[in-house]
Amino acid sequence: MIVQDNIPFAIRHFAPAQLREALRKMHLIRLFEEGAEESYMRGLIHGTMHLSIGQEASAVATCMELTDADKITSTHRGHGHCIAKGADVGRMFAEFFGKETGYCHGRGGSMHIADVKTGNLGANGIVGGGLPIAVGAALTAKRLGRDDVTVCFFGDGANNEGAFHEALNMAAIWKLPVIFVCENNKYGMSTPATYATAVPNIADRAAAYSMPGVTVDGNDFSAVAEALHIAIARARAGEGPSLVENLTYRWRGHSKSDRNRYRTKDEIEDWMSRDPIARFRAELIAHGVLDAAGAEAVEAEAKQAVADGVEFAKASPAPGIADVTKFVHAEEAA
Amino acid sequence: MNAQTQITEVTPSGETREMSYAEAIRDAMAIALDRDPTVVLMGEDIGTYGGAFQVTLDLIDRYGPDRVMDTPISELGGAGVAVGAALTGLKPIFEFQFSDFAALAMEQIVNQAAKLRYMLGGEAAVPVVFRMPAGSGTGAAAQHSQSFEAWFGHVPGLKVVQPSTPEDAKGLLLAALADPDPVIVFEHKLLYKMKGQVPTGYYTTPIGKAAIRRTGSDVTIVASAIMVHRALEAAAKLAEEGIEVEVIDLRSVRPIDRDTIIASVKKTGKLLCVYEGVRTLGVGAEISALIAESEAFDYLDAPIQRLGGAEAPIPYNPDLERAAVPQKADIETVARRLAKGEV
Fold first, then answer.
1. Is residue A225 part of a domain?
2. Which of A9, A254, B84, B153 is the 20 to 30 A CA-CA neighbour of B254?
3. So what's the pLDDT on residue B9?
4. Which residues of A touch B123 (CB under 8 A)?
5. How far, in Å, are A161, A165, A199 from residue A194 at the CA level?
6. Candidate list B23, B75, B246, B332, residue with the active-site label
7. What is the pLDDT of residues A253-271, one digit of tens each?
8. B120 in contact with A at a CB cutoff of 8 Å?
9. What is the pLDDT of residue A1?
């Protein structure tokens, strides 16, 4: 990436208020997921969840230039995407707690968290499930003459699904306004991406679809934001799709069942020392966007939102048992 | 709603015209394309080629490639694009060349289309239509001849219809398109050339309503798709022997029209289910069970009978192929035995 001076792209490109909000969202994601984990340990949340702690820069920087009209499709590791796109953590906690006030009225949980009003078409329990759906959303924009774009989040695991090939190929032949954002966190559950994928970089696969492909440090907020800036501009200009690969790492296991037998403590600690939030925060302070006290205030705001969100969820009503088939079809949704 | 999503009403004319089943489906699609600019057709070779069974024929010339979109040979991805498009404001009609190929797209149909509204707590809708040419009798053997209606009928969130006449082929497709949820339309390949009177203009045939095609008091036959016609032929023959068969055209597998079936069985006391899908765990099992659970059970004068597809893939050899699914003679034999109390 060519840097014209030593001021990072994001600092040059975004207003201080936007950067402050980005930091707030990154803290919010981290604190939300820590809060969700704690609630799970305390038995307030059942089932399972997939935490993205350590991947916050990827989610927030990717969504920086998206409006509510722009769509995203998300993954099973989708809490960060949902918050980055603008969801309210109270309604997210309510969903995790299985409450009627949750985004999915308690029917979806962590794995199907969505917020259609802010353009999040939903997390997905199927690896690669969102890939063709994102292409369909981009097709709608093109057919109806709208200039909104769709960002398709997926992981390194999904890049080996057949749906990846079919989706990228169709997006390319129809020049659709979609950006494929691969969050390569090095493991599909336990299987290393280096073992499961025949090319060194997942972005290399873009060549097979005649679309630009770029691999960036996914823990570098500015690098991700710049890559997305270019890809979104290309999509909005009607020039077609792009593939962006954000190299990152999840600090936690794949899900609650993970015994961490496939990676070393040293590796995890090494990545924890490259915390994307601390890095971005230091960058904002270094470039005078915020001072230390300002950064503390941002984190405190996020903490308060999480505390309020948990209380909202706890106080919310559960769905009625008689409503088990509500929402299967439109007539039952009335 | 902006100007691009305005629906233009086409008033039914009250007139009918003779059309084939395939023409009736094409007529429905043309009406849909005319009245709603968000409707798009998608599928493999549906453009210049006109579709594997020539159902879309010249629609690409009339509506252009933006609305009649050839997809690559990508059933999973293509179905998924249709789902994503439906989720965000288009109304896609996605054609599978053969219903068998929907097996490649089960993920998007079953895990995504059928469940998105529910998983998202009613905050999203997937108004997509999947058209699936189905059934045996074309010599295309095991991977181009299956009848999957029971598979899809097992999935909450989907609606599944099987028109048996040109009139219903048009009306059910337009109803499927008007439905806010995903609908699968099984079109029987052997019916594409069948002719019948079809109302011109826009109309819908209600999803979830069976049709009584022949009334009778001795035996009820519930049949679907091409089996309706075989059952009607058998019923005509049996009438010569004084056996009056009531033939119900199921039309909709999910939701199923319990009331019509129960009322008929209460009248005749005898039930024969005829369907082309594999007999075990098929549509006939559901119909039998709903009778066994209903007040019609007390009216039964004989055990319920099922005629379904053989417990085998559809074979190539034409005699074997015919033997693998119910034929008129099979229906006649079983219905006669039922009527005569020999079962």
1. yes
2. B84
3. 52
4. 103-104, 114, 116
5. 15, 18, 8
6. B75
7. 999 889 899 999 999 999 9
8. yes
9. 47
Interface of A with B in 297-326 (CB under 8 A): 325-326
Its domain, for residue A77, covers: 21-28+43-87+106-304
Does a structural domain hold residue A319?
Answer: no
| CATH fold match for the domains B3-199 and B211-339 | yes
The CATH number given to B3-199 is: 3.40.50.970
| Cβ–Cβ gap A107/B120 under 8 Å | yes
Verify whether residue B144 is a known catalytic residue: yes
Determine whether B229 is an active site residue: no
Q: What is the pLDDT of residues B168-198, one digit of tens each?
A: 999 999 999 999 999 999 999 999 999 999 9
For residue B74, list chain A residues with Cβ-Cβ distance below 8 A.
Answer: 166, 169-170
**What CATH number is given to the structural domain containing A181?**
3.40.50.970
Kindly report the CATH class assigned to B211-339. alpha beta
Helices A162-173 & B75-87 angle (0-180, nearest 10): 70
By C-alpha distance, the chain B residue nearest A143 is: B66
The Cα–Cα gap between B297 and B265 comes to 8
DSSP state string for B8-75: PP----S-EEEEEHHHHHHHHHHHHHHH-TTEEEEETT-STT--TTSSSTTHHHHH-TTTEEEPPS-H
Q: What is the DSSP string of A141-164?
A: HHHTT----EEEEEETTGGGSHHH
pLDDT in tens, A76-86: 999 999 999 99
**For residue B3, what pLDDT is reported?**
37
Give how many domains chain A has, as a whole number.
Answer: 1
Please write the tens of the pLDDT for every residue from B300-317. 999 999 999 999 999 999
Give the residue with greater pLDDT, A29 vs A4. A29
- Chain A to chain B, count of Cβ pairs less than 8 Å apart? 155
Cβ distance of A144 and B38 shorter than 8 Å: yes
Is residue B2 over pLDDT 50? no
H helices of chain A, in order, are 9-13, 16-41, 56-63, 79-84, 89-96, 130-143, 162-173, 193-196, 221-236, 265-272, 276-286, 292-315, 330-333
Residue B11 is predicted with a pLDDT of: 56
Question: Hey, what amino acid is at B39?
Answer: V
Confidence of residue A4 (pLDDT cuts 50, 70, 90): low
| Domain range list for chain B | 3-199, 211-339
In A203-232, the residues whose Cβ lies within 8 Å of chain B are: none
A 60-89 → B contacts, CB under 8 A:
71, 73
Average pLDDT, stretch B9-35?
90
